[in-house]
């Protein structure tokens, strides 16, 4: 059961009580101490495995190598254990482990998602929480609950408060959720977590330019940065330092000047006292290495590809129009106005956010791969470019309505595809949710998560190392503090940064 919290701007002279502030309500959820039910704990394990798979596959990619190089130059305090840098057994200061591991998880854009009023990848909460747990000696049960709390807070914020309409990046919801998760992990007083949540929000508000136009590797770094500064915010709050307050409702706060303005009102639903965190069950992972709003359309393209070949092949296609939601059209579709989404020389990060490119590849290849579907393997192929440039998107009000529906059976992230051939004939099909979605044709269960991990790590580490990691990950709620250090995949060959920066 949840309770709706009404959030609005208050003038300074109104003296909004702490207990009535959203940051305090979030901190109360963290301090409640209710254990997650078995199905929630099982899903936490699934997402830990999911993160590890995508981190293993990305561990020698440039941004991850750079982040790891920075982290390895920041030793932990001598009286603390430190946190493990993924891919190694090396331990460093927790905020830097969160940094390196967060980039590894985010680099391929291949882990879980939750979409509502705003966007999110709630799995981004796991690296900072795991790092703090390893560093402070928390056990697996405490970490499991902390992850469940962080998901709860992030889902509530993403459902209730839209950031992207004001071009604020979605990591502004991640900083507070990580701070709340750490508060739960360390069993901190409500007052301490309240200050940390506010500091974390204040320091993680940034523009959406990181996901617009020519998208760079910062897209992978952005959530890792949020996790890093959230750890630092908790540390300061534990030392007695305060925060800008009230950060959401203040006269010069986030809502008044970054979001809908001084007359705005939002509703954020959080669990009532004594209610176990369960929001992780509303989230979903990816079968394909591309932005989540492309997942269903990739599955639809896999169905349509053979039918297009039967009609004469890609050369007979005059146009393909994807009728979809507002978000899909304007964020990853032609409604964005980004010419980079049609540029064969665009970065991987840009093409990951180009539904015309993604659908074209899936039509031709019968699927989508985290390496083979991106440059330099695919983008400059003449047949692909021709098909790619024939694809456009339009907003369909019905798909927009379904995108924002609160009814899980109706909520959809797909669209209708209309193919027009050069002879004037047409081919039309539609899909509501991805095959891997809980309501899809092949919902992801434990075997699928383990299978994804093995697929992504097969060419990176041997079966013995895969088994060692899985043996610990599958027992997460039962792990001792010492065993949490085993939640890494150790690689025999790690790439090393070619240069050196300030550190």
UniProtKB/TrEMBL annotation:
This is 2-methylcitrate dehydratase. Keywords: Lyase. The gene is prpD_1. It is an enzyme of class 4 (lyase). Pfam families: MmgE_PrpD_C, MmgE_PrpD_N. Residues 288-471 form the MmgE/PrpD C-terminal domain. SUPFAM superfamilies: 2-methylcitrate dehydratase PrpD. Coiled coil: none annotated. Belongs to the PrpD family. InterPro entries: MmgE/PrpD_sf (IPR036148), MmgE/PrpD_sf_1 (IPR042183), MmgE/PrpD_sf_2 (IPR042188), MmgE_PrpD (IPR005656), MmgE_PrpD_C (IPR045337), MmgE_PrpD_N (IPR045336). It comes from Pseudonocardia autotrophica (Amycolata autotrophica). Residues 21-264 form the MmgE/PrpD N-terminal domain. Its EC number is 4.2.1.79. GO terms for molecular function: 2-methylcitrate dehydratase activity.
């Amino acid at each position: 059961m949840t309770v709706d919290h009404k959030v609005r701007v208050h003038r300074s002279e109104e003296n909004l009580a702490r207990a009535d502030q959203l940051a305090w309500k979030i901190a109360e959820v963290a301090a409640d101490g209710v254990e997650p039910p078995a199905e929630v704990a099982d899903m936490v394990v699934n997402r830990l495995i999911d993160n590890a798979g995508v981190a293993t596959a990305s561990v020698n990619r440039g941004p991850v190598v750079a982040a790891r190089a920075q982290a390895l130059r920041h030793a932990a305090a001598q009286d603390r254990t430190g946190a493990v840098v993924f891919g190694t057994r090396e331990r460093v200061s927790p905020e830097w482990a969160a940094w390196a591991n967060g980039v590894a998880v985010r680099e391929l854009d291949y882990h879980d998602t939750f979409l509502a009023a705003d966007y999110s990848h709630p799995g981004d909460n796991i690296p900072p929480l795991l790092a703090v747990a390893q560093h402070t000696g928390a056990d697996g049960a405490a970490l499991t609950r902390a992850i469940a709390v962080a998901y709860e807070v992030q889902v509530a914020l993403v459902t209730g408060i839209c950031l992207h309409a004001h071009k604020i990046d979605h990591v502004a919801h991640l900083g507070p959720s990580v701070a709340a998760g750490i508060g739960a992990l360390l069993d901190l007083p409500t007052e301490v977590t309240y200050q940390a949540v506010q500091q974390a929000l204040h320091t993680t508000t940034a523009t959406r330019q990181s996901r617009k136009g020519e998208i760079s590797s910062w897209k992978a770094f952005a959530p890792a940065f949020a996790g890093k500064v959230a750890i630092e915010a908790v540390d300061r709050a534990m030392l007695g330092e305060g925060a800008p307050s009230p950060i959401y409702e203040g006269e010069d706060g986030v809502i008044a000047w970054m979001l809908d303005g001084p007359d705005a009102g939002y509703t954020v639903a959080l669990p009532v006292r004594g209610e176990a965190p369960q929001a992780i069950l509303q989230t979903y992972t990816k079968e394909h290495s591309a932005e989540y709003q492309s997942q269903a359309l990739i599955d639809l393209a896999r169905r349509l590809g053979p039918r297009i070949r039967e009609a004469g092949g890609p050369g007979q296609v005059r146009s393909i129009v994807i009728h979809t939601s507002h978000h899909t059209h304007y964020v990853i579709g032609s409604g964005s106005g980004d010419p980079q989404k049609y540029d064969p020389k665009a970065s991987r990060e840009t093409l990951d956010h180009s539904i015309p490119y993604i659908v074209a590849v899936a039509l031709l290849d019968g699927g989508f791969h985290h390496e083979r579907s991106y440059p330099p393997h695919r983008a400059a192929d003449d047949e692909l470019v021709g098909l790619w440039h024939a694809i456009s998107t339009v907003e369909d009000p019905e798909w927009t309505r379904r995108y924002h529906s609160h009814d899980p059976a109706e909520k959809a992230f797909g669209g209708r595809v209309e193919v027009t051939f050069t002879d004037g004939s047409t081919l039309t099909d539609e899909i509501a949710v991805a095959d891997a979605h809980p309501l899809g044709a092949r919902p992801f269960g434990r075997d699928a998560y383990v299978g994804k991990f093995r697929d992504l790590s097969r060419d990176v580490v041997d079966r013995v190392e895969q088994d060692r990691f899985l043996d610990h990950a599958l027992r997460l709620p039962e792990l001792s503090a010492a065993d949490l250090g085993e939640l890494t995949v150790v690689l025999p060959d790690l790439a090393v940064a070619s240069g050196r920066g300030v550190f």
